[in-house]
Amino acid sequence: MATDDLVPPLRAGVRLLPRTDAEGALLEDAILGRRIRLDGRGRDVALALDGPQPLAALAERLGGEPEPIAKAVAFFARLHLLDTDEARALAADAVALDEIERAAPASVPLLVREDARFTCTMCGSCCGGHNVGPVFEDILDGLAPHAADLEAATRTAKGLFFTMGAHPEAPDQAQVLCHQTRGSCIFLMDDRRCRIHADLGGDKKPRACRIFPYELVATPRGVAVTIQRECRGFLEARSGKRLVDDTAALREVIALAPRLSAVRRIISLAPGRPLSWDDYQALEDALHEAVDRRPDDACGALSAARDVLVAALGEDPGARPPRTDVPALSADLDALVAGLLERVEAMRGAVPPPSDEVWVRAEALDHLRDALTNLRADLPRAVAPLARPDQRELFAEHLHHGLMSKALAMAPTVLAGWARLSFGWLVTMTLAIHRARQVKRRHLVAQDVMDALVITSFLWRHDDIAERVLPAFDEALVDLFVLRWPALVAAARDLPDPDRRLELVKF
Fold it and tell me: In order of start, what are the domains of the chain with their CATH numbers?
């Protein structure tokens, strides 16, 4: 920064707060919702940023040399604390996001893809494989007069609900959940209907049941509405009613949500590369278009979308001597898998064995372990073109819904979000191949892919995976599944180790 360069003042909404010690201060950014701890120099610079001024004048006011002052100014600029066009745009997006989160469901703008469709097939599968809840107080109060009849009808020996996570120091974190029997909600009947819905009406069911499978995400321009791929009936349900033709029902669903998920207040393409919401949305639109250009080739669509992201960066980071030879790719893929497996095994080991009192289900971790273990060996099939039209359509819709769920705008960076999506698809395919092999079927059917997609979608959304596991591997995921993706795909047939084992089928 040159001494005659003009230094902007602090952005509106940024102010100094006193600290209890005398050596620094806290800088509060009310709009972006954060506090930054400053040392003595940072505090002095912040106090002096009261109007536009040349760097030399700022340094003279502070009685110091321009270079250290310039470093402090650069620190404020990186955090978007100065009154620049970029920082104002990011702050405006944050204000708009707050307004959307507070908006009434009846008036909030809805963001829905024109071709998104869903009609429940009543398969009943959403009532199993996960804990049904939380069940809020108003629902419990409404069901209380009918508890005895429901217990008799369900023939339960353990009651209807249980409380999990209660702690004397954090009672507000306790959650009431529906009991399960053999992996399914206790209220699920043999005809795949909900006992509460059948006997008392749909408005008596837990809110989570009435919201599923809709995914609702607040953005600066409205609430994005899409479908979770954890719906096992998605293959048929995706041919149902257009979401854009059912906005009244969607607004009712939004009204049920106790709190909406929201995109990040600052969205970054890569570290240090912030995006305004309009720029992010333009990039997401380009990714949708890339998927649509290659509807018959999942790997080709992922590659086309990857190229969009690299173009947005302005340069190909893979140009800096990439490790694209087969030994390097194998070693790095193995290192990633080994790290993930270590985390998975630790989580699996923490699950208590079944007892007469408690049965903690964790089969999804077993499925993830199987997929990771077979990833390199099955990579050639995982990246091969999908054989059947229904599989190809399923992939395209999965990617469109994944983008509409704002997964990229909720990840640490857009690149990390895309790497997770691409890696998740390969894990899905590997798991589908593994499960088909278990029943001695060579070819995949769409339901194999859908079943695997249900598992990976559930895991990728699970707090323990999304917040405690994947972030530790984001750098490796971006490296392999964005920057070196073309090399990984090109080398897929050479990555598996030669199999020299004698295989015998005894049973």
Answer: 6-83 (3.90.930), 110-256 (no CATH), 265-494 (no CATH)
